[in-house]
Amino acid sequence: MNSEPMVTKTLADGEPALWFEMRFNVPARVLWKHLTDPEKLKYWFPCELDILPRKGAVVTFKFPGEKATEGTVLEAEKPRLLAYTWEEEVLRWEIEDDDDGSLLTLTNTIQEGQEIARSAAGWHLTLMGLDDYLNKRPLGQDPALWDEYVRRYEEQFGE
Asked: Given 1, 9, 22, 112, which is the most exposed site by the fewest CB atoms within 10 A?
């Protein structure tokens, strides 16, 4: 299924947000494991992520060579919904089973002043990396594509 996410600029609870929708050829319960298991997350998520999918639990984000930051789990309903804070942002992952696997919707609230095209490009490549990992393909997070996706989203969002 080597697909790409659909990406839209929107509002979430009155805040600017990016909305991503992507189909995966695995059921919701499998996708849930890849959103919550640090051993699976390390292959596709942008940084080391330690998460206990329980409301109120602390989420730890760690980039190599940097001090860890923390967030909080806002919602967790296995295997359908996971939402947590990451600094000033909220990531809300919703999973629905469908005929061919599952549909993932990611809503990412954006910090004021954040470069939305760069965020869109980053999550685009990250979700494609998750699809590659699920399908046992080499990770397609090709850094050479970064500028191409940033330009694409600058045009799409009129930045």
From this structure: 112
Between helix 28-36 and helix 116-134 the angle, nearest 10°, is: 120
Sheet holding 6-12, edge to edge: 6-12, 15-24, 101-109, 89-98, 81-86, 69-77, 58-62, 48-50
Q: Cβ neighbours of residue 21 under 8 Å, at least 6 residues apart?
A: 5, 6, 103, 104, 105, 106
pLDDT tens sequence across 95-115: 999 888 999 999 999 877 678
Output Rg (C-alpha) for the chain, integer angstroms: 15
Omega of the bond prior to 79 within 30 degrees of 0, cis? Answer: yes
